[in-house]
Amino acid sequence: MVSGSLSRSSAARRRSKVAPAVEAEEVVPLVLKMPWWAAPTGICLGFLLPVLALVAYAGTISHRSITVRGLEFLTTPYLLLAAVLLVASALAGWIGQQIVPRRQEPERGSDLARAAKVVGFIALFAYCAWLRGYLFNPYTVFLVLTGQLRPERFEIGGAGGLESLLNFTPVFFSLVAYAALVCRTRLDTTLRALLVALTLLTLYRVYLWSERLALIEIALPVVLAWVLAPPPSRLQGIWRLFRRFGPYAALPLLIAYFGITEYTRSWQAEAYFGKTSFVKFAAGRFASYYYTALNNGAGILSTTDKPTLALDSVLLWLHRFPLGVGAAFQELTGFKSQVGPFLTKYGDIEFNNPSGLFLVVSDIGLAGALSYFAIVALVAAVLMRRYERGDVLGIVLYPAFYMSLVEIFRYPYLGQPRAFSQLLAGLIAVACVLVWRRTGERYRRRRVAVAANKSFNAGTAWPEPARLRR
């Protein structure tokens, strides 16, 4: 009796030494829920519709800070059309939220971190190639940062298309943020160095290239992971504020960021400097920016007799695809840019955003646009559910689809080459995680088999861990 008890206790000790090595991994601790505004239905009905009304009202205000360029096309029928498209997106998003993904084990944070390294090094290489003329010479960097040298956009780059790989950066930040904040994985030195380097390079890109969206693209995945994760030990008040109010809480920060980037571009102009406060200037410029985008889109739609079917709003990345593919597709669709001629005749080249709502309608028609926005919202909702459950496909693609909803007033984000680059980066990350998952399963099974064989030879049965049973 005593010997049997000793045998069982020794077997338990042996299992306690081996089992943690087999099963200890960072995974999502439980099924978490995104806040209301992270869903397509919530962002469309709870934020975009009120903002649409606010922007439309701003266009009627006569104030020095608000600038409406060109002819006015954004009348009540176009505002109602925009509202219908948003409601259709919200309805499709609600349907997508009812689709519950097949339950599966969440991704391990260590696998996400390793995939982030692959994507991050590609983005780092692209930055080094794209900015080589303004990055490796300290004196040139000094001149740029002090404002003594401001190169034009056409003078930057020329890296043979490698600049499209810059847009791997948002996927890198999504993987890192999910691994660190949701899975609570400790980031190693290499990953931290990549994180710092790509953050600094993105800030440099925003300053040098005047590309505000680049910083928003890396901040959004971090915010999404942060509000999904369990409450942090610090900053719980801010965390609850963002969980509850989301885009409304972020709106002052967004306007401030917009104003800072506009400081050197417009604040010094005679029309603004000394005639209004900087806060009013930033808010007015922000409202003008989005009102003019909607007005441009309404103008393009009103001056288009029928759908062009050029697919330049939903598949612009294919029109610009290299290796002759883009040229062949342009010839097939009879592509002719609508935006440039419209701005030259009716608008202002400075405010050149065409709106992500009306441009799609002028491209593929009302029925096509309703179907397009419904499909995008439905897919976004399904990806959000996968994101909540720690699925790698949702982790890498959901932020881009959510960004397409946030940017819907400005331009059709998903049709842009930058969105296609993120899709490519996401597929690379998914492939990496799948390979490492299979490799890890085989390795763990081999370890279990070896441990079971040793235990069997010692006269003790070795039960297979529950998580490895099929």
What's this, in brief?
The chain has 18 helices and no strands. The chain is mainly alpha-helical and 470 residues long.
How are the SSEs ordered, and which strands pair?
Layout: H1 2-23, H2 40-58, H3 76-97, H4 109-130, H5 132-135, H6 138-145, H7 169-182, H8 189-209, H9 212-228, H10 236-245, H11 247-267, H12 278-302, H13 316-319, H14 325-333, H15 339-345, H16 358-388, H17 392-406, H18 417-457
Helix pairs in contact: 1-18, 2-3, 3-16, 4-7, 4-8, 4-18, 7-9, 7-17, 7-18, 8-9, 11-12, 12-16, 16-17, 17-18
Explain what this protein looks like in three dimensions.
By secondary structure, this protein is mostly helical. It has one domain (25-468). It is 66% helix and 0% strand. It has helices at 2-23, 40-58, 76-97, 109-130, 132-135, 138-145, 169-182, 189-209, 212-228, 236-245, 247-267, 278-302, 316-319, 325-333, 339-345, 358-388, 392-406, 417-457. The longest helix is centred in the last third of the chain and has 41 residues, at 417-457. The chain is globular and about 80 Å long. The two termini are 35 Å apart. It comes from Rivibacter subsaxonicus. The chain crosses the membrane at residues 36-58, 78-97, 118-145, 165-183, 190-207, 213-229, 241-260, 357-383, 395-413, 419-437. Keywords: Membrane, Transmembrane, Transmembrane helix. This is Oligosaccharide repeat unit polymerase.
Distance between the ends: 35 Å
Low-pLDDT parts are 1-25, 466-470
Strand content: under 5%
How many E strands?
0
